[in-house]
Design goal:
heterodimer; A: about 450 residues; alpha/beta; Rossmann fold; 16 strands; B: mainly alpha; ABC transporter involved in vitamin B12 uptake, BtuC; two-stranded antiparallel sheet; 11 helices; about 5% strand
């Protein structure tokens, strides 16, 4: 449907758009016009401006491309947060006097559209790096293009272990890709660690059922779940994978209920509202834990009309919790500008722009190879924790390092319209509390 | 236990399918229009219900959703379908294809607009009746029972309208022989207006109920239209009782598949059935040929 020339480009609001009274205009959409007409016009202007071109080059902006799913709640946080970061950096003087320009593309949840956007970003818009997507299928499609076009690609939200596996297995070609988020297996490990403390120690739970959408990111997730959940003290009674297009979860919840587990551990990202609403409507007496990406943003409460109450989920960072000194100022700035809390991708997207900025400053260049070397040396305290990338010899080459002192993620629970952090203990702002229809053994300690 | 579960679950979802499909088949039967923006109309009703329910509660939201349903139907009729039907530039043999394409594109426009303003995240409305009841050991949300009741109530009212009122009989006549009807002095344009009104209300109700039951999003508009389309073809294009029968066949086939085989392939048996029926009996279960 979209040909390379007729792609919608969505330019996110920036400080420069404010009118005289400091008001933001509505979202600006530019239609890409015919390339031939544009290039002829550009050529004419360039020729006319040739003498002043040399002087102007120093003040040329540094362009960073953002490819994301603008109509998805988790996707739109990526360009929103990136623009916020760019505006902050520009207000502080930019990168050695050069301003950052964010160019956004909507990939409509399609890997094919994302690839076209990537090609356009590199070849026509001359971006120095691309921050893309939370969908593993999309990022896996972009990875070879990052290699072919030798342009750094960071993903702030996709999780599949395959991303770093490709980099590890063919470093020379794929070194331009950076997995700036936790791999599925790390997310699973974090959930297992949290489940041990919260469910096993806290409630004496012994059994669970794993319920995941059938997508690229959940294959390594589920593999790790099946290993680490029993180690954490939860026997896995059943493992259900459902189509991401599912809309009716009644049979699935019935199947799970038949096994009588103490808790359901989910791996869901593409779906979220429907299974949660139906869980509450059917009053399934089993708590929901694990990962529910959509539940990480504040609109989730509204979208589910409060059915989210009691849902427990892994998250990168959360409202009101100072994972690092940068977390809360970012969350406040994001809410002030966009009216909702950022989805998990917002935190890492914001950090991605800062990481790229620092790398350019370290490398003193925007060329791809020096930039890659500089990115590898990243040691940045972001909003989700201390961010470093695994090296060439580690299994998860160019993935974010997981662990205490670096990034562990945290666990939130929706309570009365608010996200309460319940794990780890040093960041917790509250305790687990379940809606009345959920039957949990009120065990020991807590 | 499982049998009761399947019976109850299947009944509610079939009733919802039926409501959606009946509007669709009525539209085709009476005015010959295959409205491919059907799914989009339902989603508009659902999203409107969600928006209004957020501030004013579920009941007001539901009412607003139904209103949004028939407003969308009217807009579709006056802006897309009628201009094509009355156009001098399009040869009459091609008008149906143009209407098909026009409504398809219009449906896509609606879908993109909803995604733009409200994201493609599914929207839900709090159930109109909260709580669960126990039917023979099966824990069923009361809302599901309400949905089945409303669907059958609407279908019952429609039956009364078509068979007992003058306007309804004119509708029936128009679907059999529009020419003959005009010779008897009926204004066809009034008939069409009536059919679009009924269609809009039915689609609006279906959309709102869908929002309270499963939730729906802008990315499901295509699936909803396809689902209604296949049920209608299965039952026989233009036959209301055929659509009712087909909706229950499809609803139960899906439910049985989801419970007894696996939820992942729930829509497959219905599609296989569709292929078989089109091959063996192309007019559908109860269609006229």
């Amino acid at each position: 449907m979209n040909s390379g020339e007729f792609m919608f480009r969505v330019r996110v609001k920036s400080e420069a758009d404010k009118d005289g009274e400091g008001n933001m205009p509505k979202k600006i959409i530019r239609h890409a016009t015919s390339v031939a007409a544009c290039s002829t016009a550009c050529l004419a202007v360039a020729l006319a401006a040739a003498p002043s071109a040399a002087r102007a080059a120093d003040a040329e902006p540094i362009r960073i491309g953002i490819i994301s799913e603008a109509s998805a709640i988790v996707g739109v946080a990526i360009p929103n947060a990136a623009q916020l970061a760019a505006d902050e950096i520009n207000a502080a003087g930019g990168i050695d006097g050069r301003k950052i320009e964010i160019i956004s593309y909507d990939d409509h949840n399609s890997a094919a559209d994302a690839v076209r956007a990537f090609q356009r970003a590199v070849n026509q818009d001359h971006v120095v790096a691309v921050v893309a997507s939370y969908i593993s299928e999309v990022v896996l499609a972009l990875e070879p293009w990052s290699a072919r076009l030798k342009t750094p690609l960071l993903t702030p939200g996709a999780a599949s272990d395959e991303i770093t596996r490709h980099i590890h297995e063919d470093y020379e070609h794929n070194k331009y890709t950076f997995h700036e988020w936790l791999a599925s297996s790390s997310i699973a490990q974090s959930i297992c660690d949290a489940s041990h403390d919260l469910f096993v120690t806290g409630y004496g739970m012994k059994t669970t059922v794993v319920m995941s959408e059938d997508a690229a990111w959940t294959k390594p997730l589920d593999d790790r779940f099946l290993k680490c959940l029993p180690e954490a003290g939860l026997q896995v009674l059943d493992h259900i994978r459902f189509s991401p297009d599912s809309t009716d979860f009644t049979p699935i919840f019935n199947q799970i209920e038949g096994k009588k587990p103490d808790v359901i551990i989910t791996g869901i990202s593409h779906v979220g509202v429907q299974p949660t609403v139906q869980w509450a409507a059917q009053q399934v007496p089993i708590p929901l834990g694990g990962n529910s990406s959509q539940s990480t943003t504040s609109t989730f409460w509204k979208d589910t009309n409060g059915a989210a109450d009691g849902v427990v989920s892994f998250d990168g960072a959360a409202e009101g919790v100072a994972t690092t000194p940068k977390t809360m100022p970012f969350t406040e700035a994001y809410v002030k500008r966009y009216g909702v809390t950022p989805a998990y991708t917002g935190y890492s997207s914001y950090d991605a722009i800062y990481i790229i900025t620092e790398a350019i400053q370290r490398a003193k260049s925007t060329e791809a190879d020096p930039l890659v070397t500089a990115l590898e040396a990243t040691d940045h305290v972001g909003t989700v924790g201390r961010m470093q990338f695994y090296g060439k010899d580690d299994v998860f080459t160019h993935g974010l390092k997981y662990g205490k002192g670096l990034i562990t993620g945290l666990t939130i629970q929706w309570q009365d319209g608010k996200q309460v952090t319940v794990w780890p203990e040093n960041l917790a702002t509250g305790k687990l509390r379940f809606p009345p229809f959920v039957k949990v053994k009120q065990a020991a300690a807590n | 236990m499982l049998a009761t579960q399947i019976l109850v679950d299947g009944f509610a979802i079939s009733a919802l399918y039926a409501l959606g499909a009946i509007g669709f088949t009525l539209m085709f039967g009476v005015s010959g229009v295959l409205n491919l923006s059907h799914g989009a109309t339902m989603v508009v009703a659902a999203v409107t219900a969600w928006l209004v329910a957020n501030k004013f509660g579920s009941y007001t939201g539901a009412a607003a959703g139904v209103v949004a349903g028939f407003v969308t139907a009217y807009v579709t009729y006056f802006m897309i379908v009628r201009p094509i039907q009355r156009s001098q530039a399009i040869p009459s043999e091609e008008k149906e294809i143009f209407v098909l394409t026009g409504t398809l594109l219009w449906g896509i426009m609606i879908q993109e607009a909803i995604a733009y303003f409200y994201t493609d995240n599914p929207k839900t409305v709090r159930p109109l009746i909260e709580g669960v009841v126990n039917i023979n050991g099966v824990r069923t949300p009361s809302n599901e029972i309400l949905i089945a009741a409303i669907c059958w109530g609407a279908i019952g009212l429609l039956w009364l309208l078509v068979n007992k009122t003058r306007a309804g009989k004119a509708l029936l006549a128009a679907s059999i022989n529009p020419r003959g009807l005009t010779l008897l002095g009926f204004e066809l344009s009034n008939i069409y207006l009536l059919v679009w009104t009924i269609y809009g209300v039915l689609a609006g109700i279906a959309g709102v109920l869908l929002a309270t039951f499963l939730g729906t999003s802008s990315s499901q508009t295509g699936q909803l239209t396809a689902s209604a389309f296949s049920i209608v073809v299965l039952g026989g294009l233009g036959s209301v009782s055929g659509s009712l029968l087909a909706a229950y066949v499809v609803g139960y086939l899906e439910t049985v598949t989801a419970y007894l085989i696996t939820p992942e392939i729930r829509s497959m048996p219905a599609l296989i059935l569709l292929v078989l029926v089109v091959y063996v009996r192309p007019q559908g279960f109860l269609g006229r040929r």
